[in-house]
Amino acid sequence: MAERNPRVTLAGSPPIRRTDVPSRVVVVALLGASIGLLFAHQAYRTAEITLSGALLEAFSSDGVHVAAERQTVYFGLGSETPLGLRMTPECTSAFLVLPLLVVGAVMIALRPRIRQRVLVALGVAATAVVVVNQFRVLTLVGLVKWLGVDTGYYWGHTLLGSMVSVFGGAAALVLFVWLATRK
Amino acid sequence: MTSSLDVLLGFTQALALTMSVAFVTYVLLIVVPYLRHEPAPLGRPNRFEWHFLVPCRDEEAVIGDTIRYLRTHFPIAHVWIIDDDSDDRTAGVVRTVRRNGGQEDKHIHLVQRVRPHARTGKGDALNDAYRTLKLWMGRHADADRAVIVVVDADGRPAPNCLEVCAADHLFGDDRLGAVQVDVRMINTGVRQDDVSWWRRRTGAALVRMQDLEFRTAIAAIQMSRGVTGTISMGGNGQFTRLSALDSIAGPTGQPWRGSLLEDFELGVHLLTAGWRTGFTMDTHVNQEGLYSLRRFLAQRTRWGQGTMQCLRYLPRIWDSKHLSTLGAAEMLYYLAQPWMQLLGTLIYPIPMIMLGHRSATSPAEVGQWFADGAWILFAVYGAFGLMPFVLWGPVYRARCEPGVSIWRSLGYGFGYALYIYTFYITSWRALIRLIRGDNGWTKTRRNTDRVAGKVALDH
């Protein structure tokens, strides 16, 4: 029983929490980033659509133009079906990254020793969310080119886009939990 | 220029999506091990000393049968009836059964509480019994071999429960401090007499949902907690090693604490003290499901308020070196549930309200939007919103009620989705009680109790 008895504790006397300074800084930074995402989502969407433009240019032979001030990318320029896609607040990955940042901050605040692990998990999961959103845009463009504007946009934006968001979101969450909590 | 309404819509949609996706993923992760579960080998109950603790208040109608049931099915066990200063003849019934027609049954014990020290909560009643039991056992008793079982006054533990709990992977393992067994509703499929047709039907459906909830979703959650090391205790069918209780009792001899969720609280104290907890579906305890929606809402409000109160344990949980980060995260998720339900009631309606407003101002535009494919979005989100609940209907059929048709099981699934949505109501009620500092609850009402007035239920 000697092995088991170290558990004997006085009731109501949990160990005293000591959050180190770097952890506090990280928590504040993560919460600040969350608030920043909420209020500066336009800048985030501009960056996101600029990335989409760069990817489209890399994968497409038609002309691509990014109107950063309107968070819009035009593709298929020079072809018969040019189209502009706008990164709206409903389409951005900003608000999907935000809950991850808040949960990450809470985890570090509660258990400072896992700071590094949570930050890695956050980095990977946030990247996954961003990549999934870019994949959604590329899929939409591909379907528009393949099936035409009406049908391609219909399936690409409405159904496939939602499915990609749901499964991508699920994958990002699982990744986050797994990376942040594994031993 | 993006309007603030668009931002609000985007933000709430993303949050709703995240919360829904998190929940769907969680459900899919827990359902697979649940469906694959196989019974484990039994153990030898006579390796242990068993003590049933039965808290009672005005239980004259049921306590005699409960004592006889426990003594008949578990002759090696002691039965401790804790009379919380009943106004009826509860104590008298216990004494009569103990006299046993002149041949006193020394395995039946009565712990008599008297006001003003009585009726201060179930935890206090259990603590009284714990201290009395310790005195009765003496200082040199082997607390590692003694197991305390908390059972409701109308509880019926399955006859095999001691064999199951004595198994090598449960109390046979010295590191294990407590075991929670599966809970079933004894009145599933039994309809009330002397009530209207409508109440008979809705009452039976409500009991069915409680049975489905405990035997599928809660059991699956508990099994998944076997992986995270955070199996929690319930108020009925709770088995705890006496030495584990000793380790958390403190100088005042109080292993049970004062929150409205004293069973969950017990689990937190055991886990953070380094004990492991177990759960088994190989045996069960039967309890009465509630027919009355009003009493059910009162019960769930109490549970919600208790969960909210237990949020104070978060630092203790995350500071504990005995709990893994995954385990602490699981408990955080559990304790965050009522708060997420509150958030959900604020967030989920926003897109709908905005759509309603848009429909009223530009009906043609919204009609075209629907026809252009938005209906698919609604179908997808609707499916993701319902699927994690509807799924349990067919799962219930597969594991618990194979005689039920697949269509009926799907009906149960949809009923369960509706049943779960009541938590959005109870979480708000719990918050209001918490804000008001209203932490007291009146005595448990059973289905047979017909007295009008304030009700609350212990299960």
Identify the overall geometry of chain A.
Answer: elongated
CATH architecture of the domain at 45-212 and 230-293 in chain B: Alpha-Beta Complex
Biggest β-sheet of chain B: count, sense, barrel?
8 strands, mixed
Parts with pLDDT < 50 across at least 5 consecutive residues of chain B: 452-459
Q: State the separation between the terminal residues of chain B, measured CA to CA.
A: 55 Å
Reading off the top of the CATH hierarchy, the class of the domain at 45-212 and 230-293 in chain B is best stated as Alpha Beta
**Separate helix tally of chain B:** 15
- Oligomer classification: heterodimer
What is the straight-line distance between the termini of chain A? 28 Å
Proportion of helical residues of chain A: 55-70%
Percent range for β-strand residues of chain A: 5-15%
The overall pLDDT of chain B, averaged over residues, is 88
Q: What's the Cα radius of gyration of chain A?
A: 22 Å
Order of helices and strands of chain A: HHEEEHHH
Number of helices of chain A: 5
Number of domains of chain A: 1
What is the residue-mean pLDDT of chain A, rounded to a whole number? 83
